């Protein structure tokens, strides 16, 4: 029995190695369909090493598994995968899974057994976008998925603390980061309530995106719990990427003291209400009222970071959250 896997393999990156490893561990002999130099010139937006060099790198990698394998030239997307009776499995990425399903339909029409589809999940770079040869060629990332050119992040805010927390978080995640603060945005209220908090965070994120990699919107709002009769302060973060995909996250919430709730009902923000009660200004630009109320055991910065981190969780396992494709 034979497992097949096809591709250009222009730059032997972590995603390629995952595909070849899955084929090698399938228990079958492996045939790699490697696109020809002509196919590379005619179908790819990037140049790459010639066929012989790409073949050599594949052979070097597969030879470490002690399996039988062959690398063959491939001049079309499907080669002879729709007609060969020898093949029993095919290795695909989320991007090529639909193609494999189409291959199986054509095999069934021809009276052949469908191939077992072995799907390798997205292999993500440090910026949470998939590793690809195109991105390596463009100088965005290296073959291990480390960011080479700066990750460009926009955030709509007039609050220096939000910008600082966002920059520090993405630097830990991707290393090379540039953060651009956008002040050209508007919200419907200085003190959002309930679902308006989510809507305002979303609007901030889209306003910040422009031509960048990510746009970030972080909004603090009050949510009323009918079960407890209490109001809770929650940070909501919206993250939209250059493909238009948006994800959301929330921080943990804390109960807002009744004297502040009463003033919010009269149209004040939490910071304005806190100032009226204590005389302390600009609390939102430092540790926030949560810092004062918790005796500095919780700070506004930690809640901002928590909401941002949680907004990125769906991007860490995009398929599980239903994201099937990235734009190419």
From TrEMBL:
Enzyme Commission designation: 2.7.7.3
UniProt domain Cytidyltransferase-like: residue ranges: 4-136
Domain Non-canonical purine NTP phosphatase/PRRC1, residue spans: 157-316
Recorded superkingdom: Archaea
Keywords: ATP-binding, Coenzyme A biosynthesis, Cytoplasm, Hydrolase, Magnesium, Manganese, Metal-binding, Nucleotide metabolism, Nucleotide-binding, Nucleotidyltransferase, Transferase
Cofactor dependency: Mn(2+); Mg(2+)
Biological process terms in GO annotation: coenzyme A biosynthetic process; nucleotide metabolic process; thiamine metabolic process
Pathway: Cofactor biosynthesis; coenzyme A biosynthesis
Described function: Reversibly transfers an adenylyl group from ATP to 4'-phosphopantetheine, yielding dephospho-CoA (dPCoA) and pyrophosphate.
Name used for this protein in its record: Phosphopantetheine adenylyltransferase
């Amino acid at each position: 029995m034979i497992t097949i896997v096809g591709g250009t393999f222009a730059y032997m990156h972590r995603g390629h190695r995952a595909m070849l490893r899955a084929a090698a561990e399938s228990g079958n002999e492996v045939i790699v369909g490697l696109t020809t130099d002509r196919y590379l010139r005619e179908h790819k937006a990037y140049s790459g090493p010639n066929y012989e060099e790409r073949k050599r790198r594949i052979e070097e990698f597969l030879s470490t598994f002690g399996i039988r394998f062959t690398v063959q030239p491939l001049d079309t997307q499907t080669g002879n995968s729709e007609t060969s009776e020898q093949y029993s499995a095919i290795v695909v990425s989320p991007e090529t899974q639909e193609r494999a399903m189409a291959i199986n339909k054509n095999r069934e029409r021809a009276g052949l057994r469908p191939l077992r589809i072995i799907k390798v999940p997205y292999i993500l770079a440090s910026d949470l976008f998939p590793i690809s040869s195109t991105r390596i060629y463009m100088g965005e990332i290296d073959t291990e998925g480390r960011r080479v050119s700066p990750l460009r992040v926009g955030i709509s805010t007039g609050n220096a603390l939000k910008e600082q927390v966002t920059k520090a978080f993405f630097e830990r995640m991707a290393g090379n980061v540039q953060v651009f603060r956008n002040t050209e945005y508007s919200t419907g209220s200085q003190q959002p309530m309930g679902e308006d908090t989510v809507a305002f965070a979303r609007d901030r994120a889209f306003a910040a995106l422009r031509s960048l990699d990510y746009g970030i919107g972080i909004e603090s709002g009050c949510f009323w719990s009918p079960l407890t009769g209490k109001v809770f302060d929650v940070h909501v973060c919206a993250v939209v990427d250059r493909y238009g995909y948006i994800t959301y996250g929330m921080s943990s919430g804390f109960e807002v003291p009744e004297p502040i709730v009463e003033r919010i009902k009269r149209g004040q923000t939490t910071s304005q209400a806190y100032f009226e009660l204590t005389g302390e200004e600009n609390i939102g630009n430092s540790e926030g009222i949560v810092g004062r109320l918790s005796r500095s055991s919780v700070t506004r910065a930690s809640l901002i970071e928590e909401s941002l981190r949680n907004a990125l969780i769906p991007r860490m396992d995009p398929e599980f959250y239903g994201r099937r494709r990235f734009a190419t």
